Amino acid sequence: MRGLFTASLVAAGLAGRVFAHTSASHNDDGPVRRRKSLGFGPIHPHAVFRANPPQVHAEGLAPRADADPFDVARRFAEVESQGQSYYVRPDSYTDKNTGVTHVYIRQLVNGMEVADGDMNINVKDGVVLSHSNSFYTGSAPGVLDTTPEAATVHAEFCAKLGDELVNHHATFAASSSGQVVMGSQADKEKLEPIQHVYDSNCAHVDLPSQFATGSDAATFDPYKPLLQFMIAAAPTRAASADILSKYDEYLSKMEATFEHHLVGGAEQPLGHIANVPSTVSPVKARFMYVQVPSGGKTALHPVWKFEVEMEDNWYEAAVSVSEPHHIISVVDWASDSPIPSPKPPADKKGATYNVFAWGINDPSEGNRTIEKENFDAHASPAGWHALPYANDPQSESLRKKKTEFWRNTTTTWGNNVFAHEDWEGRNAWVDNYRPDAGESLEFDYKYAPKDTDSSEALEEAQKYINATVTQLFYTSNLVHDLYYRYGFDEVSGNFQQYNFGRGGKENDAVIANAQDGSGYNNANFMTPPDGQNGRCRMYLWNTASPYRDGDLEAGIVIHELSHGLSTRLTGGPANSGCLGWGESGGMGEGWGDFLATTIRSTSNYSDYAMGAWAANRETGIRNYKYSLNETINPSTYKTLDKPGYWGVHAIGEVWAQILWVVSQRLIEKHGYSDSLFPPTPLANGTVPEGDFYRPQEFTAAGVPKPLVPKHGNSLSVQLVLNGMKLQPCRPSFFDARDAIIQADEILTGGENKCELWLGFSSRGLGPNARVDGRTPWGGGIRTDDYAVPSACKPETVPEEPKAPEDDDGDEFIYM
After folding, report:
1. Origin, by domain of life (predicted)?
2. Is the model's pTM score more than 0.85?
3. Residue 309 annotated as binding?
């Protein structure tokens, strides 16, 4: 059986993520080369997301508000799973802000996990509010299913994927839109140097004959499937060719060590495979199933699931166990007992920073000022410059008294963020340079770049590394604290070294690289599952002289950190594979743009471009500015059908534009808050209402209800984050829309339902919007719908004839 493409073309990236990022040598001022990034996988036509599903109660009894939410979810899952086996994932949690318990369930077949067999059940007061289900519904196959039917289904899936890739390549090459994605100008003149990025395969690489063992071979050996993936994932043609030429040598050097536990659990044994080419750490491997749909059938395929950390990528890949080894799906993450919480040092002095203050997006908008460290008793109880020795990556090299718990630092090193330079663009970071303010904790450094010619531009930018790292540390910590206050806390997977005994997995603060030397004109964020450090890489931009520093444009930093937010909240903190491609991957980009734009906005409405300062381009790095004016930004749901809109960034800007319009509806109704930060908590931990929250309400039993932001912009941020928690893994635009509307139902009783529908429908995402023939790349034919429920009909619109009813019986008015 031959692969879809020959081995000479395997240095490849697939369309879903091809233009996610760029990289280049700092000694090369020519065209920026693109960082290769793979991202593709099946679309599951049987997957569903339902709000307000029929309830399942014990012995036909009415729901009880005091019922254990996990018991409610299990009873519901017993019915919904139709007898299939499953387990409740340990990253399930109750959101203390909303009272909703998010229960994540993973399917088991033959005692093994189905990696994409997920059920997310959202429970409150004994009621299942919503749920999603992507369980495999067919009969259980053999452990190694090499039947002709399974092989045929997968071959059809791969063939269709390959055809769509070719079509997208053709339409993109013919497009003259010249979209800039984090700085890379993807026009026809620059396509030729990166032609190999488009040439790839879904099925497998044609290995030299001496290595091929035939399509009937089956083995549990992870080495060949992994090496097969590395040939495709290798960052360059040369690296792929090297693996092919030394295939036997690399195969013989790879070594696996498997973890086996005394007490068995649902997850399969975890392997660590060392000496893998093009990687920077041992590859993690598990044996699982994945679902492969094609032609109306879905086959369950046994795979090795790999976690592969490279210099520029961090992949989660599924490769078929049986030969020839097919790459079925791949996502680029480039998204025990509580410990008693000792009190932070009472005499700890707060730091100060000379920075562009929160709300100043970039140097063109204002001057630097001295800002104070933001002590927030909820978000950062120990401040920004303290962490326990036990959670400190540097602690082994430090002398400390055995009685000491906290380490107070004088550099840009703390519990939430490790910020430093990375001029060499390497993976090492613990000992990289970072400014040291000494006991004064006054991070006050000069920033006054002068005009230079290109030969001195890099050196000029590096002169101000202290100011740059300080700014990155300040912005990143504020993003941490802001998102924490809106519900991105320990149990939901936020980024902290120490979790203060409040749940979740620790030792995953953000590693923030300033002026990263692996590229120009870009930024990226890698989001592994909870308990592993997120990694943010910020680059210089050679778009002006002197070079512009992405670390100083807050919108870019916020966009990247928001990848960590949306990836950890969607599908649960232990599942980082939910936003990999198509509409889901696009929304991962869109949330970043929306939140960055919302944070920089003011009470005086304005249109905003993304990345305009760094790119030295008034219209920014997207196709359009974010605007209420349809002449300035005409994007609707159907815009995704246009040539050039198959990449995740283009999809994302449509989603961000829709959210921008929705948020303005809420602002029109509720007004605008000049600060998105809630009031500082009191000494007893309670949060004063101030002018931020509505007066606290209580249930009949005296239990406080969730605090509700009173202004439109703060409310929109809250609903967007709450919606991420409710939506399923691999959500569509429809799923995310419905989750936001349900988030409002939970938080406010649905008082903003009409404003939300009016906002979504005004950009084509009304209740009857649809997509026919949706594909893994996000393809298909979309139909805009400008309808709203009849109850939401604006009073100013004249009475119109009764419209047809939708499938649920609700009437809609077309506007």
Report:
1. Eukaryota
2. no
3. no
